[in-house]
Amino acid sequence: MYEAIDRYVRMLIAESSPARTVWNVERLRQGKPADWNYIDGCMMTALQALADITGERQFSDFVRDFIGSFVAEDGSIRTYKPEKHSLDDINEGRVLFRLWEETGEERFKKAANFLRGQLDAQPRTCEGSFWHKQIYPDQVWLDGIYMAQPFAALYEKTFGTGNYSDILRQVETVEKRMRDPATGLYYHGYDASRSVFWADPETGRSKSFWLRAIGWFSVALADLAEILPAGEARDRISGVFARLMADVRPFADPESGMYYQVVDQGSAPGNYLESSGSAMLAYAMLKGARLGVLPADFAAQGKKTFDGLVSRCLHTDGDRLGLDSICLVAGLGPADNPRRDGTLAYYLSEPVVSNDAKGVAPFLLAYTEIRRL
């Protein structure tokens, strides 16, 4: 299996370039060239992890060449739009720290400084949480924790003073505002103003438990547990992480170990076992067990989910591999897009695709954890 997955990744990078990546299905469907975005950023993070576990330089070389094509000598980032104030666009910056350490090129440090400045300018809710984007005022999405906080932690660890209090505060605000006390699951979004059409007027929460949103949050917590040094902040982040993993675990499909697109509605007509969020939970559980912040038996649960992904979603077409059952995209609003209302019917209406990095990247991250067992 290892050889087949390694071959799959080599195939993907052989067919990709800084101008066009085959794993960014959204850009391919739009017919647009590659730009600075979180989808490619997820894949760059996975390729760095693969280089570490396999020793294959072609993975890290691709990251260097790809990111290098966007970062100028002064640290400016081609195609980046500061006025969007999009947390999604911070995510790709996670790989800059390694690139700076490995190459010594100051442009990568300058780019990290630039993105840190973007976070300093990011609008916040009345409780101090980042808005998800400029077009989503007062809204906190689970996705945004993954997009911004591991970068912020890496920056603080590499160039800062070791103050992780803002990261901790934002994570704990999400637990306070977005966790359902009955199930322990987290809602996709929260509107601090309680005014947007999809939000509950009393709680501000959206309506459903979307798997990939919970997956993003889980991966963020697992990564933060690794990045943060021993101490109170790490312990409290790990507590949030352990509670979530214990609460989501009972919703796994008993046979495959995978999870449903809308997590708590497995019997609903049209609901399906979704691979991107399942891969994220597999990675989080495997990594959490390895780090010792989750009980050791979560490694077996994560492996079961990974094995379910391989048996159900990893298909062969001659010599080619592909990963299926990936929800292409889902979101909440904005106001001029009422279709994205956070209901079960909405999440089941979004396209399901193969080989998109939102599924491939977490699958590969989970694979690197399997290789460590």
- The helix-strand sequence is HHHHHHEHHEHHHHEEEHEH
Strand count: 6
Structural class, by secondary structure, is mainly alpha
Number of domains: 1
Shape: globular
Q: What is the CA-atom radius of gyration, in angstroms? A: 19 Å
Q: If helices are DSSP runs of H or I spanning 4 or more residues, what is the number of helices? A: 14
The end-to-end distance, rounded to whole angstroms, is: 14 Å
CATH arch. level architecture: Alpha/alpha barrel
Main sheet: strand order: 1-2
Instruction: Specify the CATH class.
Output: Mainly Alpha
Q: What's the average pLDDT?
A: 97
Question: CATH fold name, please?
Answer: Glycosyltransferase
State the low-pLDDT regions, or none.
none
Largest sheet: 2 strands, antiparallel
Estimate percent helicity: 40-55%
Strand content: under 5%
Briefly summarize what is shown.
The chain has 373 residues and is mostly helical. It has helices at residues 2-14, 25-30, 38-54, 57-68, 96-103, 106-121, 142-159, 165-178, 211-227, 232-248, 275-291, 298-313, 344-347, 357-372, and strands at residues 139-141, 189-191, 314-317, 320-323, 326-327, 352-353.
What does this structure look like?
The chain has a single domain (about 1-370), classed as Glycosyltransferase (Alpha/alpha barrel). The chain is globular and about 50 Å long. About 50% of the residues are buried. The model has no long low-confidence stretch (mean pLDDT about 95). The two termini are about 15 Å apart. It has 14 helices and six strands. Helices cover about 50% and strands about 5% of the residues. It has a two-stranded antiparallel ribbon. A two-stranded antiparallel sheet has the order 3-4. It has a two-stranded antiparallel sheet with strand order 5-6. With about 375 residues, the chain is mainly α. The chain has helices at about 1-15, 25-30, 40-55, 55-70, 95-105, 105-120, 140-160, 165-180, 210-225, 230-250, 275-290, 300-315, 345, 355-370; strands spanning about 140, 190, 315, 320-325, 325, 350-355.
